[in-house]
Write a structure and sequence with these properties.
Oligomer: single chain
Largest sheet: none
Strand content: under 5%
Radius of gyration: 23 Å
Distance between the termini: 66 Å
Helix content: 55-70%
Number of strands: 0
Order of helices and strands: HHHHHHHHHHHHHHHHHH
Structural class: mainly alpha
Length: 265
């Protein structure tokens, strides 16, 4: 009996019995895994989020992020508080990871369609409506201006920017903002069908977007698009560095990644 009791104490069962609310988080993790794997709703985002949620909420696994003394060395954090805290305090809390993600995003982005038709930039600018709507609403319900700005970036539909801005303005909100930003983007395929039904008709849904450039060519064709695509990240990086220096870690690496893509190295 003593042996069985010790074996029982080694498990997480008693901890779950003492704090049954853990089961709610585990259920949510399983549901998000189902959406990511079975339904293929943004699996690149949803599967890591859901599996991270699953293993972080099992008691005793040391996979949950804790509030610890930030004066500790990374070795002490890894040794005493587990690998997840090491990753969090070395890559996320320092602000290192978001710019690196932006470097990769830049290398995967083709600005060609936008440069051929600059009016498309207004579609991207529409995200700013979400930012200011959330910012004003957050201030109205009692958040500070810095907290509201961090929350507002979620409306821009960009995870790395939300994380980076929160680290600078409201680090105590980093956890919920990161989860909200990435979960919201991962669940866009769940939200979009409702929006589509409200705002489009069947004729519009049948439009082949890839054929639009051929059907409606620009009235002012660009003679050397490749040169323009190389000059674009250099120009944007320079202008942003002059006007908004604090955004250089993100926009600078985004543009650098895109430049590397366009010059073919």
């Amino acid at each position: 009996m003593e042996l069985l009791e010790k074996l029982y104490q080694m498990t997480a069962i008693q901890d779950i019995v003492d704090a049954p609310q853990i089961l709610l988080m585990i259920f949510i993790a399983f549901f998000l895994l189902y959406l990511g794997i079975k339904k293929q709703y943004e699996p690149l985002l949803l599967v890591p989020i859901a599996f991270g949620m699953l293993i972080a909420n099992f008691p005793g696994g040391q996979m949950g992020v804790e509030k610890i003394d930030e004066n500790l060395t990374l070795y002490q954090i890894a040794r005493d508080h587990g690998i997840m805290n090491f990753v969090y305090y070395s890559l996320i809390k320092t602000g290192f990871l978001p710019p690196i993600i932006f470097l990769g995003v830049g290398a995967l982005t083709d600005f060609g369609p936008m440069l051929r038709n600059l009016r498309l930039a207004f579609f991207g600018a529409a995200a700013q409506i979400g930012i200011f709507t959330v910012l004003i609403s957050a201030v109205a319900i009692g958040f500070t201006l810095k907290e509201s700005a961090a929350l507002g970036i979620i409306g821009g539909a960009d995870g790395p920017t939300a994380i980076y801005t929160t680290i600078k303005l409201a680090p105590h909100l980093l956890g919920p903002i990161a989860i909200a930003a990435y979960s919201y983007m991962a669940l866009v395929p769940v939200i979009i069908p409702f929006v589509v039904r409200l705002t489009t008709n069947n004729k519009e849904l049948l439009i082949n977007m890839k054929q639009q450039d051929k059907l409606y060519p620009s009235k002012r064709p660009i003679k050397d698009l490749q040169t323009l695509k190389i000059l674009f990240p250099i120009g944007v990086g320079t202008i942003v560095a002059l006007l908004v220096p604090s955004s250089v870690p993100l926009i600078g690496l985004l543009m650098f990644g895109n430049l590397v893509k366009e010059i073919g190295v």
